[in-house]
Automatic annotation (TrEMBL):
<keyword id="KW-0479">Metal-binding</keyword>
<dbReference type="GO" id="GO:0051537">
    <property type="term" value="F:2 iron, 2 sulfur cluster binding"/>
</dbReference>
<comment type="similarity">
    <text>Belongs to the bacterial ring-hydroxylating dioxygenase alpha subunit family.</text>
</comment>
<dbReference type="InterPro" id="IPR015879">
    <property type="entry name" value="Ring_hydroxy_dOase_asu_C_dom"/>
</dbReference>
<dbReference type="GO" id="GO:0005506">
    <property type="term" value="F:iron ion binding"/>
</dbReference>
<dbReference type="InterPro" id="IPR017941">
    <property type="entry name" value="Rieske_2Fe-2S"/>
</dbReference>
<protein>
    <submittedName>
        <fullName>Aromatic ring-hydroxylating oxygenase subunit alpha</fullName>
        <ecNumber>1.14.-.-</ecNumber>
    </submittedName>
</protein>
<dbReference type="Pfam" id="PF00355">
    <property type="entry name" value="Rieske"/>
</dbReference>
<dbReference type="GO" id="GO:0051213">
    <property type="term" value="F:dioxygenase activity"/>
</dbReference>
<keyword id="KW-0411">Iron-sulfur</keyword>
<feature type="domain" description="Rieske">
    <location>
        <begin position="52"/>
        <end position="158"/>
    </location>
</feature>
<dbReference type="InterPro" id="IPR001663">
    <property type="entry name" value="Rng_hydr_dOase-A"/>
</dbReference>
<dbReference type="InterPro" id="IPR036922">
    <property type="entry name" value="Rieske_2Fe-2S_sf"/>
</dbReference>
<dbReference type="Pfam" id="PF00848">
    <property type="entry name" value="Ring_hydroxyl_A"/>
</dbReference>
<keyword id="KW-0408">Iron</keyword>
<keyword id="KW-0560">Oxidoreductase</keyword>
<keyword id="KW-0001">2Fe-2S</keyword>
């Protein structure tokens, strides 16, 4: 089987189309998909420029005038809480000479004032002041350029396309009952960490979408996970254990759904424009949370929850996020591409807004599992990125038992590229 490597690839439009057309189902991608800047630019245009991108949580913009900014492949988007309580989003670019309106990641404003020449916009994005422009200047034609913004129970998504994928509303309708009991809007961010990984964003997603690597690489994370929770190859030596795991999953799902907590798997990772998947799975040992002890990290539970052992609700979205909801805290992850070989992975831990640090929770206990896991994943992604630059690299096969979600991501990715380039 032939292979196109980063050393031989010439990034013409025809070659890129050929690579896309020749992608072999069940195998990872040719090297240029991970290393070439021309394909990276296509990813930014076709994937991050046209789909719903997860950017943060509503507690970051809790009050009127609060804002957050996020960099998405060289674009800066500004999300702000309007006076009426709704969310608005704009390109973070002044309509005068293009200066960034807000350089900080977070802040609070009355109006949006450009630091260069003081052009001033209200929270609707309307230009309300522009000095020295003369009587013939029409301010109404120079408002901020809007960006689509929607929230699913406190998870904020933006879309920079002119026409955003319409299926997001259906996704929100499906997911809201799963997420709502955890009351994310009534949480606060207890910790936030950005990791810069020297790897392509797709390698970060591939790594996230499988747990084939978990047992040898994630000793902290696997303390709370059942061995068969994320894929397994059946054999004569594990038949009874697998059947027992299936029984635990079914029994737990029935009990949780009886409590008003939707739990059963929904998987649309590769058959929708806005791909997603969700499932609530039991945790092992104490079964309360993704911590080293498997007990809750925060004594004050989320929302109106009264039981600690509610497993872990996972929610994945294409192309850039995954989230874990437990009884006591929430962990959210976003992928923000920087270049063909560099990606920011942002992790945020949320607890009940009334939880008191040092009394109800300890930040180290809350974050230690995923801080360790993220660093381990960073190393795995970076070693894979280095391998992709080798002349000896050739796409290898996915495990049908443990890497099925990776294949679904790849099918979605290739499908979305084809939808743009034809």
């Amino acid at each position: 089987m032939s292979s196109t490597t980063a050393l031989t690839f010439q990034p013409t439009p025809g070659k890129i189309r050929e690579l896309i057309a020749n992608r072999r189902p069940g195998y990872c991608l040719d090297a240029p998909f991970y290393t070439d800047e021309a394909i990276y630019k296509l990813d930014i245009e076709a994937i991050f420029g046209k789909h719903w991108i997860y950017v943060g949580v509503e507690p970051e913009v809790a009050e009127a005038g609060d804002f957050l900014t996020v960099e998405i492949g060289g674009e800066s988007v500004l999300v702000v809480r309007h006076d009426d309580g709704s969310l608005r989003a704009f390109h973070n670019v002044c309509r005068h000479r293009g200066a960034r309106l807000c350089e900080e990641k977070h802040g609070s404003v009355g109006n949006l004032v450009c630091p260069y020449h003081a052009w001033t916009y209200n929270l609707d994005g309307e230009l309300v002041h522009a000095g020295h422009m003369g009587s013939g200047f029409d301010a109404s034609k120079h408002g901020l350029k809007p960006v689509h913004v929607k929230s699913i129970e406190g998870l904020i998504f933006v879309c920079m396309a002119k026409d955003a994928p319409a299926d997001f509303d259906e996704l929100a309708k499906i997911m809201s009952p799963y997420i709502a009991p955890h009351r994310l809007k009534d949480c606060k961010i207890a910790a936030s960490v950005d990791i810069v990984e020297q790897g392509n964003w797709k390698l970060v997603v591939e790594n996230n979408r499988e747990c084939y690597h978990c047992v040898p690489n994630h000793p902290e994370l696997t303390i709370s996970l059942f061995e068969f929770g994320f894929g397994y190859a059946p054999g004569s030596n594990n038949t009874e254990a697998i059947e027992e795991f299936k029984r635990i999953v079914e029994t737990s799902a029935c009990r949780w759904e009886g409590m008003g907590l939707p739990s059963r798997e929904i998987d649309h990772l590769d058959d929708r424009t806005t791909g997603f998947r969700t499932q609530r799975l039991p945790l092992t040992q104490a079964g309360e949370s993704q911590t080293m002890s498997t007990e809750v990290a925060c004594k004050k539970l989320l929302g109106d929850l009264t039981e600690r052992a509610l497993g872990g609700l996972s929610f994945w979205t294409q192309p850039n996020s995954w989230h874990h909801f437990m009884s006591d805290h929430i962990v959210t992850f976003s992928i923000l591409p920087v270049s063909a070989g560099k990606t920011i992975v942002r992790t945020q831990w949320l607890v009940h807004k009334d939880a008191v640090e040092g009394v109800d929770y300890d930040v180290n206990t809350l974050t230690e599992v995923w801080r360790a896991t993220n660093d381990q994943d960073r190393k795995l992604v970076e070693m894979t990125q280095r391998g992709a630059t080798s002349s000896g690299y050739e796409p290898g096969p996915y495990s049908e038992y443990t890497e099925g979600l990776v294949e679904k991501f790849m099918r979605w990715y290739i499908g979305r590229l084809n939808a743009v380039i034809g």
